[in-house]
Structure formats: structure tokens, C-alpha cells
Amino acid sequence: MTGRSVVTIERHIIEEERRFPQATGAFSDILYDIALAAKLISAQVRRAGLGDILGQTGTTNVHGEQVKKLDEFAHDVIFRAMDHGGHLCMMASEEEEEIIQIPPQFETGNYVLLYDPLDGSSNIDANIPVGTIFSIHRKISSAERGSVEDVLQPGFKQVAAAYVLYGSSTMLVYTTGRGTHGFTLDPSIGEFVLSHPQMRIPSPGKTIYSINEGNARHWSEGQRRLVEHLRGFDGELSEPYSARYVGSMVADVHRTLLYGGIFMYPADSLNPSGKLRLLYEAAPMAMLVTQAGGRATDGERDILDIEPESLHQRVPVYLGSDASIETVRRFVSEGARSPVTR
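User: That's the sequence. What structure does it adopt?
Assistant: C-alpha cells below.
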């Protein structure tokens, strides 16, 4: 025995709920269900290559992307874990074109769940870490089973956000607006155990930048100058940044949370509005990073302040330490919306 108190995610949620005597328990139940879905998906990710779960389904999603079998599995697991509890009025998924209604045989509640079932799924066949992203809002419409108004809310109105990283270990990181906390799945007991309480992004931290430099020829002049600055080409930095890019947003942002630096997915001439989805990726990750002491911007605006206009709206994304985001604003704000090519 080490004498160290073991705090499971269930215990942590209960202790947080006790701070609010008026709580009904519905919000806590949603978080429990998310943890259950994460365990089920983790089990299948661990078995990738042993069963018929790798490869593509032969269909495309709303974004025109090939759907992986594990994408479909993760989407279905989350829906079935969340549809019957009576706490949600509706859901929305990156994989579905329209809002997902709660089946009529089940009661509805006062919350909305938005999710990206399997971020970075193009990497799964190569055994590279992937993840799941969640966002929770309170219902604001008068419709019993919700309306599009309930989904199209700005990030600052989120009541919780979470991601699950399926890597060398499975980690669930979540916030309810009272700090960002990380839990590691202990396979010996089948429980998420608190391993990273009150996560804080180091500032300045390690000088690491994360971006797909294969898109460099499509960047704006400001974005190009930013990366040249980070690499030390302009002579302003005493120590240039190092480049690290996994290609799974969850993995890259998780590293940024732990080590510091900056994650970037900018607009470019091919994707002038950006590539990442505001509701399913940018806003929940922005809440998590902000609650850990970092910042999130699209190059001009705080991501949490952006008013969504559509279910699958895309935005440029910059997440990182305060100092790194100040550097982004210095180089990118003027040219973020005017990408050029060479």
C-alpha cells in the first residue's frame, strides 16, 4: 500500500456535485455515461487489428470523408450510451448531417450533447493515438425535445467539455468550468483514476509548435511568417521552437496541455474558413485549454466567443499558452482571413 488516496472519476464527480446543493444529479449521470462510452470505445481500439474493426465502411460522411469502421462503431456506442438516460433533449455528431433526436420511447432532459466520435481516425490503421471529444450545453429553447437553437450556442455557454485519448494509456480529461482534470483508465480495476488534477498548461513551457506543414504553400503570408519566426528564421528567438505533429487533434492538444507551446490548424487557400469543426472540436478543446490557463483563438477572435451559424461550421484554430497565443495575434491577425499561395 502506498497510502495514496485513489480518486475515481465517479468519486470526483460526486464531490463536485456536492458543491451545488440544488443539483439534481442529471448532469453527473451524463458524465458517468460519457466515461462508460469511453471504456467501451477504448476496449475496441485496443483490439484494432484483431477483429474486423479496421478499414473503411465504403461510405462517406457529411464532410465527404471516408468513414472508418471504428468511426461508425464509436458513433453508435456514444449514441446508445447516452440516448436512454432521460437527461438529454438531443445530440449532434460530426458524423451526422442533421441533429440526432432522442428516440421517442425515451424521456428527454435539459442538456444537449455534441461529439466527435473518433478524432484522428485516419491514423487508426497505423496504430497512432486517436481520441473522442465531447461538449455539453444546457437546453435553452422551449421545445420539449430541443431545437437547433440548443445546439448552435457559443462555446462560452458550454457547461462541460471533455476528450478521451486512446494512446499508450487511455485518458479522459474533462472540465465543468472549475479547472481541467485528467483521469487515466486503470485496466486492473476498470476505472478512470485521477492522475492529473487541476492541469495547467506551462507558460512559457517547452517551445513546441504543432501544425501540418504539408499545407505551407497554401498559408497566408502572416501564417508563413509566424512559422518562420517559431523556427528561428527571423533571428528574434534565442531558442527556436521544435516541431511535433501527430495528426490527431486530441493527441496534439493533450501534449500541448502537458508541455506547453502551441497547436495550430489555420485557414489556408484550400480551406479559407479553416478545417476543424467549431462545435465538435474547436469549442470543447478551447474550453479545456482555457480552464487549464491557456487561450484559444481563430487568429482574430476568442474561439469561445464565436456564434455558431451552422452544425458543421469550420474555423481556424490556435490553442496554447498565453505567450504563444500572443505571438499568434502578432503575426496572424492581420492576414488570417486572406490566405495566399506561392
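The chain has two domains: 9-196, 208-332.
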